[in-house]
Amino acid sequence: MSPATVGPSRRRLPTQARSRERVERILDATARLVLTNGVDTLTTRSIAEAAQLPVASLYQYFADKEAVLLALCERDMAEMDDQVATDLAAIEELTVASMIDTAMRAFVKVYHRRPAFMQIWMRGRTNPAIYDYGRHHNRRTAENLLAFGVDAGLLAAGPYDEQQLMTIAELAVEVGDRAFQVAFENDPRGDQFLIDQAIALVTGYLDQIATGR
C-alpha cells in the first residue's frame, strides 16, 4: 500500500532549503511549547521566540498560531502515513488481525516520536481547519486500508454494497481514533491496556467484512 496522502497542504510549502529549515524550526518549537505549557498558552510571539526567529519571519509562512498548529498536524499525519505503509509492507503473515494491529501500532510509534501531536489533535477539534483536515485524513486512511485489505483478499463487501463497505471502514478508523484519544489523554506514552483494547475493538468490528482467509 502506498502512503495515504490526504490532499494538498493548506499552506505554501517553501522550496528553498533555508526556508524549509525555518519552517521546521517553527514546527519543532511549537511542539516543545505544547509539551511544556499546553496548546492554549501558545502565541505567535512565543513560537517565534522559541524558534529564535523574528515574529515577522514566522508571518512569512503562517497567518497565525492556528495555521502553525495545522501545519504541525499535517507533518505528523504524513509521518504516520509513511510509518503505516512501511510496517504493512513488512508483515510476514497477513491477516485482518495483523493488518489492523500493524496499522494501529504504526500510529502509536509516531505518537511516541511526536508526543505533542495528540495534545494538539484533542484540542484541535476547536480549530475548524484541524478538525476538517483530521476527518479528511481519517477518510483517506479508511480508503487506503480498505483497498489494501480487499487487494489482499482479506476483506470483501459480502452482504453490503460498496458505499456501506466504505462506511464500515470509515467508522472503524473513527472508532480507533477516538479510542486512542482516550488511551493518550492522561499519558503521553498511552495506556497500554487501552491501546490493546482499541486494537481489539477495531479488529472485532471489521470481522463482519473479513473473508476468513
TrEMBL record:
<dbReference type="InterPro" id="IPR050109">
    <property type="entry name" value="HTH-type_TetR-like_transc_reg"/>
</dbReference>
<keyword id="KW-0804">Transcription</keyword>
<protein>
    <submittedName>
        <fullName>TetR/AcrR family transcriptional regulator</fullName>
    </submittedName>
</protein>
<dbReference type="Pfam" id="PF00440">
    <property type="entry name" value="TetR_N"/>
</dbReference>
<dbReference type="InterPro" id="IPR001647">
    <property type="entry name" value="HTH_TetR"/>
</dbReference>
<dbReference type="Pfam" id="PF17918">
    <property type="entry name" value="TetR_C_15"/>
</dbReference>
<feature type="domain" description="HTH tetR-type">
    <location>
        <begin position="20"/>
        <end position="80"/>
    </location>
</feature>
<keyword id="KW-0238">DNA-binding</keyword>
<feature type="DNA-binding region" description="H-T-H motif">
    <location>
        <begin position="43"/>
        <end position="62"/>
    </location>
</feature>
<keyword id="KW-0805">Transcription regulation</keyword>
<dbReference type="InterPro" id="IPR041669">
    <property type="entry name" value="TetR_C_15"/>
</dbReference>
<dbReference type="InterPro" id="IPR009057">
    <property type="entry name" value="Homeodomain-like_sf"/>
</dbReference>
